[in-house]
Design brief:
The chain is built from 18 helices and 34 strands. The chain has about 775 residues and is α+β, with helices and mostly antiparallel strands. The strands form eight sheets. It has a nine-stranded antiparallel beta sheet with strand order 1-6-7-8-9-16-13-12-11.
Length: about 775
């Protein structure tokens, strides 16, 4: 085994997003977050808008939207499907087998909402209302989780630094002028609804209560702002702070909600008081140190190019046509994904939602909730391989909180054991079907979540963690075991009713439907889940009878994939013609990724049909779709095709309309565009880049399995993770690995694939 001793990682140079002008739209602002609080400053010279977020700020409330009579129509729905009357079955599902009430469109379901906006209005001595500025620069340092803006007005250099503290759990903004007495600023707070602002002493406050969908008395929140100044004075208005003739201004923002925290006001006050007592330089250094404990675990170098010197928006504009001139952009985008993971979740809180933790609206697109048919799962895909394993834990806790509700839903709709979640959830534990059969009847949500939970065990080998999630996995397996029915044509055990997420097909009568029995994704999820529960049962030495039952049932499931007459993986049990051949979801390739059911070793006959499936689907779509296709091609070890998808997702866009088709990309601030902004594209692409560099799902660790031609000349990687709790470093030249190191907490045997050869080595103990 070759070892890397001392590598000089060129990637350790500054990783930054930077621009030569203020943001003109929110999608150009710079995202900061410490896992709970977020802010996005726009760097405006005269007026700066800084959107504030708290990941726990949700409207709505817990509800029971189960239809407890739904199970009574289940036999009739299944009978209609078995008779080929899927359209009639769908009508019955829409009538009797969806959630009660308005579902995700209702006020009680709720939304992730913006906390509000911090507004800074500046006046510059001697230049009037429209000052001319020069030498403008705006930057986000990924290495330090620090944003800056700087410019020159009337001979005075101004600088602003912003960070969401990983030390004191507050937002911090420091504004300086290089000549005394030049800072004049009005500080205010607002949000679109349900807020009150006032000053109390030297403190600015904003507080309110969101709508819970019942009596209007939902989640409460509180935001407080205090300042420290050097030189000058501070005055208060009824709803604002006025700073005059200062040389330095530091703004502290402390915020919180009563989500699982009745003493949130005390915490807001304590966090603010603690921050005010600490020297700014110390506070900044503690923030950077704490952030870098996570961020600095991984380094990647893929080479350099002359376009790296351009501003980020210009780099993005140039990349698609000339990627050779900017080999570092892929590294920046990958590390930006890791940065966003660290910034949008923390142990003990919530996983990133559809927008991570950054929202600038009350009516966040798709409620800013958790979609269980790919999106929340995609948010978690990069964390294990990217050495951020602990950031998977918030999802496990969210799922744990869904189980009791899911047990009621399983009984109400299927008269089944265990628990189920369908296609959407929120912080209140929603598990019911959605309000429309075409998308809301998916059976796959809970089983797919169990894949993410299992992933953490696969990468860490943490048996205590496995013990803690085993009841969740078992409960999900109990549901499918209880709810599966026999397909009269094949004799296989399948789910019914269900859908292949959001897609539909034509029936022989010319009508279309979504409702079916045994869509391929369900069959793959059930097979994978049963296998994982069997392994967990053996590992933990429990539930032998249930294990034996699953071992019997797994032999009665449909195969991993059936091949259609045109050579593709079939999306449904029947070889239906889909209504939309280039549909954004590719759910029937779940077995390829994130599952490990389709591999060259285990199912060689499904590799070409998987490729044909992707060819027909095409390369465009919303950004998360492009990211998923990138992952599929990486798993299929076609590095150039995977890189083509990376280019597609890095296409710049300014669109913010609701989009379900082609046209995904990234905004100038590199956040992914569905459009509108959806963070899953960032996370999916980060996972895809990692998948191009390392794979560990097919019985061995393989280095650069899907490297594109552009990256072959040379490169080096440090700190990525492989299944089995291995940390890997490696480097290559001319497409061949020249050094590698595999370490683990204890030395143990592991198979590696290096330059096409599989061999067994002993890992080095950390």
């Amino acid at each position: 085994m070759l070892l890397i001793s001392q590598l000089s990682f060129a990637q350790n140079r500054a990783l930054r997003l930077w621009y030569d002008k203020p943001a003109q739209m929110w999608e150009e602002t710079l995202p900061l977050g410490n896992g709970r609080l977020g802010m996005t400053p726009d760097g405006g010279v005269v007026k700066e808008k800084i959107v504030l977020n708290d990941i726990t700020l949700w409207s709505g409330s817990p509800q029971d939207a189960n239809n407890y009579n739904a199970y009574k129509v289940l036999p009739q729905i299944r009978k209609l499907i078995m008779e080929g009357k899927n359209d009639e079955a769908q009508e019955l599902v829409n009538k009797e087998f969806v959630c009660t009430g308005p579902g995700s469109g209702g006020a009680q379901y709720g939304k992730f909402q913006t906390l509000g906006e911090l507004q800074l209005q500046f006046q510059y001595p001697g230049v009037g209302d429209k000052p001319q500025f020069e030498n403008y620069s705006r930057e986000l340092s990924l290495n330090n989780a620090l944003a800056t803006s700087s410019f020159r007005v009337n001979g005075v250099n101004y600088r602003r630094e912003y960070f969401t503290s990983f030390g004191n759990d507050v937002d911090v903004i420091r504004i300086t002028a290089d000549k005394p007495g030049q800072l004049n600023c009005r500080i205010s707070l607002s949000r679109p609804e349900r807020f009150t602002t006032k000053t109390e002493g030297a403190e600015l406050q904003m507080y309110g209560q969101l709508d819970n969908g019942t009596d209007g008395k939902g989640m409460q929140y509180l935001t407080k702002v205090k300042t420290q100044i050097k030189g000058g004075t501070q005055e208060t208005q009824q709803d604002a702070l006025l700073v005059k003739n200062a040389t330095e201004l530091i703004i502290y923002v402390s915020a919180g909600t009563d989500f699982k925290n009745p003493s949130y006001k005390e915490k807001v006050n304590k966090d603010l008081a603690s921050a005010l007592k600490k020297e700014y330089s110390l506070q900044k250094q503690q923030h950077i140190t704490n952030f870098q404990k996570l961020f600095n675990r991984v380094s990647v170098n893929l080479g350099e190019g002359e376009n790296e010197k351009l501003t980020t928006d210009k780099r993005l504009a140039a990349f698609y046509g000339n990627p050779e001139a900017d080999k570092g952009l892929a590294v920046l985008f990958y590390q930006f994904g890791r940065y966003l993971s660290i910034s949008s979740t923390r142990v003990g809180l919530l996983p990133p939602n559809l927008q991570g933790l950054w929202a600038n609206q009350i009516n966040t697109p798709w409620n800013g909730d958790y979609h269980l048919d790919v999106n929340i799962q995609m948010n978690q895909w990069p964390v294990e391989v990217s050495n951020l394993s602990e950031l998977n834990l918030p999802l496990a806790e969210l799922v744990r909180g869904m189980v009791k509700n899911g047990e009621r839903t399983a009984k109400a709709y299927y008269n089944a054991d265990g628990w189920i979640a369908h296609v959407i959830t929120n912080v209140w534990g929603f598990t019911e079907p959605g309000e429309s059969a075409s998308w809301g009847a998916s059976n796959a949500g809970s089983g797919w979540l169990c894949n993410n939970l299992w992933d953490h065990y696969a990468f860490t080998n943490d048996k205590e963690y496995l013990k803690s999630i085993y009841p969740i996995l078992k409960g999900s397996a109990q549901f499918y075991n209880s709810a599966l029915v026999k397909d009269p044509k094949s004799g296989w055990l399948v789910t019914a009713p269900s859908v292949s997420p959001e897609n539909s097909f034509y029936l022989p009568n010319g009508k279309s439907a979504s409702i079916s029995m045994g869509p391929t994704i369900d069959n793959q999820i059930v097979r994978e889940l049963f296998g994982n529960v069997i392994l967990a049962s053996k590992t933990l030495g429990r539930d032998e009878d249930f294990r034996n039952l699953l071992e019997s049932k797994i032999t009665q499931l449909p195969p991993v994939g059936q091949v259609s007459k045109d050579g593709r993986i079939m999306e449904w049990l029947e070889d239906y013609k889909e209504t939309e051949p280039q549909h954004r979801h590719i759910s029937h390739l779940y077995g390829l990724y994130p599952a490990t059911l389709i591999t060259p070793n285990s199912t060689p006959g499904l590799i070409e049909p998987s490729k044909k499936t992707l060819e027909v689907r095409g390369d465009d779509g919303p950004s998360w779709t492009i990211a998923y296709k990138l992952l599929f091609w990486a798993r299929l070890q076609d590095g150039n095709r995977a890189f083509k998808l990376l280019k597609e997702i890095l296409k710049p866009t300014l669109r913010t309309d609701i989009n379900y088709g082609a046209g995904g990309g990234v905004y100038p601030n590199m956040l992914s565009a569905g459009p509108p902004f959806q963070i899953d594209g960032n996370f999916g692409a980060a996972a895809g880049i990692a998948e191009m560099l390392i794979q560990s799902h097919d019985g061995y660790i393989e280095f650069i399995p899907s490297i594109p031609d552009l990256w072959k000349a040379s490169g080096e990687v440090k700190g990525l993770k492989a299944r089995g709790n291995f940390t890997v470093d490696f480097s290559w030249k001319d497409g061949r690995v020249i050094t590698y190191s595999v370490t683990s907490p204890n030395a143990k045997k592991v198979k590696v694939k290096v330059n096409g050869q599989v061999k067994e080595i002993v890992s080095k103990k950390i």
